[in-house]
Amino acid sequence: MGHFSFTLELTGAYNVQRISTQIGDRGRADALSGGFTVLFGTVGYRMGAWEPILGFGAGAGFLTSESRTEASSVAIVPVLLVDVGMRYHIDARWSLRFESFFGWTGSVSYSYPSGEVVAGHMLSNNVVVGLGYALGP
Description:
The chain has strands spanning about 5-25, 25-45, 50-65, 75-90, 95-105, 110, 115-120, 125-135. It is an all-beta fold. This is Outer membrane protein beta-barrel domain-containing protein.
């Protein structure tokens, strides 16, 4: 379609982190992890060697929480991704891409047997640098 390009892909990610918090005189360390699978699409507009890109994706993910004193909990959450970036076309097949993904997961709260409640959601911004190869005739 002229200067426009379109992509559709299945994108996934997995993150692990450890957070230490101090609540009153109680210290705690939580292990949090999350991941997602998203159907993701981009549209680009080629201007010579440069191609600005915008993208959007939606899917499902999971968040887990595990504290030193409680068992782990897992929640399934909705996920949205927004992407803005630029491709630089080295030649007809090869390109470099520079992108920033912003991701959001739905809110979740965990209730433990001790009565403790932990609530949260994930906001994530990731910078991606990639090398691409275009298939075709």
